[in-house]
Specification:
Blueprint lengths: L16 E5 L2 E7 L4 E4 L3 E12 L4 H10 L5 E12 L5 E7 L4 E3 L4 E5 L3 E6 L12 E6 L2 E7 L4 E5 L5 E4 L3 E5 L3 E5 L19 E5 L2 E5 L16 H5 L12
Antiparallel strand pairs: 1-2, 2-5, 3-5, 3-8, 4-5, 6-11, 7-10, 7-14, 8-11, 9-10, 12-17, 13-16, 14-17, 15-16
Length: 246
């Protein structure tokens, strides 16, 4: 059999995390260090690999329900190679250091099992669409695989140059940055988007670090159904109800 499809063979790499292609992650397991991946993200694997749901304590489940910031993971262990993907999103590998990284859990594909995660509140008395009032903080030393809709923009934040980003487009930022939600709106109601511009809540970053933004204000909805109706627009669980998807 002959086909141009055979040009898309496996990429050989000595790295634990490697980009098979821009939308597919290759992870090598050596039998000692497990990884945690988004539930259902495995598209293929080779070798003796086990997949198991990652346990969440009652307190963790309760915090996820209250804050809406919850990351359901599976543990991948054994010896072999695992290929991970989610809705053809672009994948990026990040080395987390002791300073930590704050991220919307919707954009996490996989991470080293030795990293620590906790839910943090963003400084505002109001909730915002998309990004949410709460975020996931990741600390320790290890790697995280993030997803974006399209190729992202990395913005540098310095004491001389602060950065404002749309709350629906931000993916992650340096934990040490000072963050404030704001809506510079002429509207009499803060719950409405800014006047007639279509712009609403934004995050303002100050300090020294980075802010990562994707070129989209919405991720494809999980479990979306083709066609019209709420399930086609927001996904089966309505997770994108604050955004427009077409």
């Amino acid at each position: 059999m002959q086909s141009p499809l055979f040009n898309y063979g496996e990429q050989q790499s000595q790295e634990r995390y490697a980009i098979q292609n821009p939308q597919l992650l290759r992870v090598a397991l050596n039998g000692s260090d497990d990884i945690l991946a988004r539930k259902g993200a495995m598209v293929a694997f080779q070798g003796l690999v086990d997949f198991d749901g990652e346990y969440q304590s009652p307190n963790q489940r309760r915090r996820g329900q209250v804050t809406g910031e919850s990351l359901e993971l599976m543990r991948c262990s054994g010896q072999g190679t695992v290929y991970l993907a989610n809705l053809a999103q672009y994948i990026h590998i990040v080395d987390v250091d002791r300073d930590g990284m704050t991220v919307d859990s919707s954009f996490v594909l996989a991470l080293d099992s030795g990293l620590h995660t906790e839910i943090l509140a963003v400084d505002s008395e109001y909730g915002i669409s998309g990004s949410g009032k709460y975020q996931l903080n990741i600390t320790g030393q290890g790697k995280v695989a993030l997803m974006t809709s399209g190729q992202p923009l990395m913005l540098s934040v310095t004491p001389e140059k602060y950065v404002n980003v749309d709350a629906d487009a931000v993916v992650a930022w340096s934990t040490q940055l000072r963050v404030q939600m704001q809506a510079q709106t002429q509207s009499t109601s803060i719950t409405r988007r800014r006047g007639s511009t279509g712009e609403g809540w934004e995050l303002s970053f100050l300090g020294q670090g980075f802010a990562l933004v994707q070129p989209s204000e919405v991720m494809p909805p999980q479990n979306a159904q083709i066609g019209g109706g709420l399930r086609g627009q927001f996904g089966a669980d309505g997770q994108n109800r604050n955004n427009a998807w077409s």
